[in-house]
Design goal:
alpha/beta, single chain, about 30% helix, 4 helices
């Protein structure tokens, strides 16, 4: 039931991100994340509308590596942190407009190009404190290479979680 309760706000956040189409990730880190004493995590993808299950394995691997590098340990039961996300990738048509000068006249050269848009809603919740929000990232942007290697995905997720604090010693 708690996953269903979180699904609607997560979908709303994803749709809001899609509507505004920010150029860079919209990232929020709460004070509780900075002050908390967390050591374990569990990853739970939200398989709602628009979620791409075929991207889960690469994204889960990248999340595991990033959180492990920060000192957290994955734990299936009773983890301190619950990482939930919706990730999608869809094909669209982009429009490139260039000005062309021919014989002293200026014309617009319009070219339609295929493009891929990635959409991500990622949340890290305090699993023991009524799912309080510790971290949130919303992304909607064009992707240059939808078949990026695992290393590229790892680097992107590591950069995305850069502001999330490392485990306190």
């Amino acid at each position: 039931m708690s996953s269903l309760r979180l699904l609607l706000p997560l979908l709303f956040c994803l749709l809001s991100a899609c509507a505004s189409a920010p150029a860079s990730p919209d990232i929020e880190v709460s004070e509780a994340a900075l002050e908390g004493d967390f050591s374990t995590f569990v990853i739970k993808p939200i398989r709602g509308q628009g979620h791409r299950q075929d991207l889960e394995e690469r994204f889960n691997t990248a999340l595991r590596l990033a959180l492990t590098a920060k000192g957290y340990r994955e734990q299936a039961q009773n983890a301190d942190l619950r990482v939930i996300y919706l990730v999608g990738l869809e094909a669209n048509t982009g429009v490139d407009v260039k000005q062309v000068n021919i014989g002293g006249a200026t014309y617009s050269d319009v070219t339609f190009t295929p493009e891929q848009r990635a959409r991500l809603a990622l949340r890290i919740l305090d699993n023991h404190d009524h799912d309080s929000l510790l971290f949130q990232a919303l992304i909607d942007r064009q992707v240059r290479d939808p078949n990026a290697s695992q290393d590229v995905v790892n680097q992107a997720v590591d950069k995305l979680l850069a502001r999330f604090p490392a485990k306190r010693e």
